């Protein structure tokens, strides 16, 4: 401890940090590397694409499959850091203790550089752990130096600037200035600065939701992907007292407090039956949505994402705060209207009560959902976006 204190006093901060990192790596190397699955074989085709490492809501895996369907000369793999038990599919992955081990990091780097021609790096998270930097900037330099073509992909809070969102959206959760808001603000500013420079240098930046154009106007929309057949469900039975479901992946960002208050009031009045879904594994969610008539997604963000697309694919009436800007951007790019009933914390109870009282109108809206998802979010559009990028950058 005395030596560390002296080092901090007399040595430059960068040297102290380097010594600390070296000490950490030596400590890790003394630990045995846990058992792990082998790296997958990838077909020897023109474009070999790696997507990872966050696989947020299973999108890394879905985008990899979309890229393969779009081009016969494309092979793709999704790598994921396996942090939770939701059970999203990937092609290979490791738990955090393996991801943090220097021996695995070195082996993974050798595998990636010797296997792939392209990489889509999600959320500025490094593919090789902390081997080169705490974010993906060091990995991107290594990948580029080795001749791989790199694109960046962002899912939401990894790029969305809380202060800008709070100015734009009246119900923004980021109007509460706390540690989470401050942490996301710092992260978003850092990621946006890197992404802006990356685009200026000719790189591609992909965003999964159209609201993120406010944070990076030069990005390309890579729509979220869901499998319509997996989520297909029998038509809602049109109950006199419809079942309303809310499945918050993040209660604060979804506006769950306002959802609960409004739905519990309607439930007490006998207007709806309310169910909150939490901790449901991904393989059980289709059955859970099939039991619903109405799905309330979120009330604060001004967007729609994977959860709303799954509910639309199931033919359920979806209620959410999408916002005018996102609706217009989707219409401009697809020619289609987003079939989601608009609601805010102020009028959610009224919107749901009106849908409950008019099952024909609710059913008409729900019936448009599967077609919209097949047109925009079944992977065809996303596959085309990725295929265009791959063909532009294939050596």
Automatic annotation (TrEMBL):
SUPFAM superfamilies named in the record: UDP-Glycosyltransferase/glycogen phosphorylase
Domain of life: Bacteria
Record-given protein name: Uncharacterized protein
């Amino acid at each position: 401890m005395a030596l560390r204190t002296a080092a901090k006093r007399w040595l430059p901060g960068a040297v102290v940090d380097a010594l600390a990192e070296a000490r950490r790596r030596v400590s890790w190397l003394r630990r045995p590397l846990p058992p792990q699955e082998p790296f997958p074989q990838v077909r020897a085709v023109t474009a070999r694409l790696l997507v990872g490492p966050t696989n947020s809501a299973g999108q890394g895996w879905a985008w990899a499959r979309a890229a393969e369907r779009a081009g016969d000369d494309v092979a793709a793999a999704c790598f994921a850091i396996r942090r939770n038990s939701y059970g999203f599919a990937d092609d290979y992955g490791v738990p955090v203790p393996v991801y943090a081990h220097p021996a695995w990091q070195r082996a993974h780097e050798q595998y990636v550089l010797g296997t792939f021609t392209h990489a889509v790096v999600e959320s500025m998270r490094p593919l090789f752990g902390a081997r080169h930097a705490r974010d993906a900037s060091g990995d991107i330099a290594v990948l580029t130096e080795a001749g791989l073509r790199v694109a960046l992909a962002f899912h939401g809070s990894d790029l969305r600037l809380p202060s800008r969102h709070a100015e734009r959206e009246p119900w923004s959760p980021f109007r509460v200035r706390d540690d989470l808001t401050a942490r996301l603000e710092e992260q978003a500013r850092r990621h946006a600065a890197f992404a802006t420079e990356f685009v200026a240098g000719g790189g591609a930046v992909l965003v999964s939701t159209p609201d993120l154009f406010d944070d990076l106007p030069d990005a390309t929309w890579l729509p979220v992907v869901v499998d319509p057949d997996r989520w297909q469900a029998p038509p809602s039975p049109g109950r006199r007292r419809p079942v309303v479901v809310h499945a918050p992946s993040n209660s604060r960002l979804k506006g769950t407090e306002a959802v609960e208050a409004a739905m519990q009031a309607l439930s007490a009045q006998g207007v709806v039956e309310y169910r909150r879904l939490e901790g449901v594994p991904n393989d059980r969610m289709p059955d859970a949505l099939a039991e619903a008539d109405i799905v309330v997604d979120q009330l604060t963000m001004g967007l729609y994402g994977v959860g709303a697309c799954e509910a639309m694919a199931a033919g359920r009436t979806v209620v959410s705060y999408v916002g005018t800007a996102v609706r217009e951007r989707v219409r401009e790019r697809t020619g289609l209207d987003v079939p989601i009933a608009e609601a805010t914390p102020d009028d959610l109870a009224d919107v749901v009560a009106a849908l409950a009282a008019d099952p024909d109108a609710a059913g008409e809206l729900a019936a448009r959902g599967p077609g919209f998802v097949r047109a925009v979010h079944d992977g065809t559009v996303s596959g085309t976006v990725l295929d265009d990028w791959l063909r532009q950058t294939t050596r």
